[in-house]
User: Fold these one by one.
Assistant:
Number 1:
Amino acid sequence: MIFSLDGRLSVCADLVRPNTKLVDVGTDHAYLPIRLAVDKKIASAIASDIRQKPLAAGLENIRKYGCEDIVSVRLCSGLDGISPDEADDIVMAGMGGELIVKILENAPWVKSAEKRLILQPMTKAHVIRSYLYENGFSILSETPCTAAGKYYTVICSEYTGEQIDYSESDLYIGKLNNNNINARKYIHFILKKLKNQRLGLAHSNSDTVAIDRVIEDIQQKFGDDYNDNNS
Ligand SMILES: C[S@@+](CC[C@H](N)C(=O)[O-])C[C@H]1O[C@@H](n2cnc3c(N)ncnc32)[C@H](O)[C@@H]1O
């Protein structure tokens, strides 16, 4: 029997376009490409990782589920060992936001309207949004999700070349809106983190003007649900 993907990876899987050439960067056990191959959703996949050990586990799984004809493994850092014609949809899940941005910066060819980026940061999603807004990418959607009791977002993005104006709340909340329970939980989670950061700054007598502005912008945009008593 085939395994199920967790909340993060199943959102990523839903965002992969049918019959695509997929690259799953930082694949670890290769669960995402295997699941998509077994479900016959993709044309091909490269499961890549910077470390040999996770890649060996990935290869073992690929053989176990009989999808060697669709999924291959590649030992490389980020997109360094991938050529543009091997990738339509690129997933980067389970990594920090700063690392994801570094990988994108090192592969200028991702700036193509034909490529789709599906990004699920474990931390610092705002760093990714900032990179996307500043570099001509449009955020098509953000899907909140939970895994192991924690809240995450999956950012789906494509290159348009257009510069986009954004506010502080766009950086921290992105395209999420509070019409769904997971989005509301995610927004509360982000606000709590920002408020803790603010407390840290205040305790060390550092300037809190910038972070105050972010918190106020989010509270104004999303309303009473997110005032001091509720977040
Ligand atoms: C926590 S796992 C995430 C696995 C899977 N993508 C998921 O979301 O469940 C992160 C993986 O990224 C790999 N990794 C870290 N830095 C990398 C890089 N620069 N290029 C490719 N893979 C990297 C690690 O070796 C590890 O296997």
Note: The CA atoms of residues 142 and 163 lie 19 Å apart.
Number 2:
Amino acid sequence: MRAVIHDRYGPPDVLRIADVKRPEPKEGEVLVKVHFSTVTRSDTGLRSAEYAFTRVITGLVRPKQKIAGTELSGVVEAVGADVTQFHVGDEVFGIKSGANAEYVCVLESGLLAPKPSGMTLTEAAAIADGGLLALTCMKPAYPLEGKTVLVYGAAGSIGTAAVQLLVHHIQTNVTAVCDTNDVELVRSLGATEVIDRLREDFTRTGTTYDVIFDAVGKHSFRRCRHSLKPGGIYVTADLGFLYHVPLLSIATRFIGNKRARLGIGTYRKADLLLLKELVEAGKYRAVIDRSYPLDDVVEASRYVETGQKTGNVVLEVSPHGP
Ligand SMILES: NC(=O)c1ccc[n+]([C@@H]2O[C@H](COP(=O)([O-])OP(=O)(O)OC[C@H]3O[C@@H](n4cnc5c(N)ncnc54)[C@H](OP(=O)(O)O)[C@@H]3O)[C@@H](O)[C@H]2O)c1
């Protein structure tokens, strides 16, 4: 099968398409023919070893996981022994490392779910990563019900997911901050108010919030703290702040009445199923910036690495049906 291989850390050019052995489903596993995948910020960050500490998990010298990619949608091709919830021909979506490939094996109990009805396979490939990360990164600020929340970086993958989840699932008032080009999109996701960051600095409006969620890590706690209400909390999703936010987190426990926390994203099956429900209830949708054929993965990766994408970038792995 064709797959995107990264066998060394580095810029997008280290990615190459190669023919590798198709996996066979073992007991409890589902073999998925991948139709669409994505290139995420986590994919580019792990490929370039953007944060050196990630090498402890992904391989000190070379990546242990040679096939790139995380998100997928596709059709069940075969099932291993004892698989009961999935059947050949089912349309599915989910998360599995090595998803930039024509086939992938996923545990039945793993991050795989039936594709939401009323959604295309293209769209289904682009909802899981941002949605699951937004739900878990915002956890330090939970419970969010009834609070006023500002989402900074609202047009990114995590940002667009956070706005939709806060408005339609958690049901809070959301002020979203993005640039001029994305104002209408972010408004259409349900934000109560949208601030164009190129025209207005939210820290100078005098408005204060219970929670500021920096979904792209471009605003520090220091710059945000005057925009927090007493008892308010700042949460950043950017792992680049790993070096100082944990210290800030301890310090703000003892000093002042505003707190800073690092949001750590994790993937949970329950959240994947929640996303499916929300899509089917018309409360969540995919935000796709561009799609690239699998052969253009280097170009797709370069674009994602600019940090300027709106929502998600899809990779067409086998787009023309089974
Ligand atoms: N904590 C975790 O566990 C975890 C896990 C995965 C990823 N991450 C991190 O989470 C962050 C967000 O990921 P993502 O995939 O959502 O990012 P993304 O989709 O690449 O974010 C792109 C958006 O960021 C906004 N942006 C770019 N430069 C900006 C600036 N200077 N000021 C304000 N906004 C700016 C742009 O929106 P506008 O230009 O419209 O404002 C753009 O739409 C990344 O730093 C990623 O590394 C964290």
Note: Residues 40-42, 45, 133, 137, 153, 155-159, 178-179, 182, 197, 215-218, 237-239, 263-265, 307-310 surround NAP (CB under 6 Å).
